[in-house]
Amino acid sequence: VVPGETALAFYKAKNPTDKPIIGISTYNVIPFEAGQYFNKIQCFCFEEQRLNPQEEVDMPVFFYIDPEFVEDPKMANVDLITLSYTFFEAKEGQKLPLPGYQ
């Protein structure tokens, strides 16, 4: 991905069980210092997702790396940014707070 250009990626999720699962995905950016430059335009994260038994889905994330990334001397040696997700089964009535918001 070239900083400043938008990109679309898909994450595959599969429910290997015989019962429906409702879950929420949270994300992580590595290296941590690059996270401030990673901007999600549209993402499945922090929204409940239902996966039926044995269902496999592709979940999209539309994003860009802020062009200021290339101007930051602390990012000079960073040539790989990893975006990962963890899918948690949702508990009834439980809401995850959005990061940075009270």
UniProtKB/TrEMBL annotation:
This is Cytochrome c oxidase assembly protein COX11, mitochondrial. Exerts its effect at some terminal stage of cytochrome c oxidase synthesis, probably by being involved in the insertion of the copper B into subunit I. It comes from Eudyptes sclateri. InterPro entries: CtaG/Cox11_dom_sf, Cyt_c_oxidase_assmbl_CtaG. GO terms for molecular function: copper ion binding. It is found in: Mitochondrion inner membrane. Pfam families: CtaG_Cox11. The gene is Cox11. It comes from the Eukaryota.
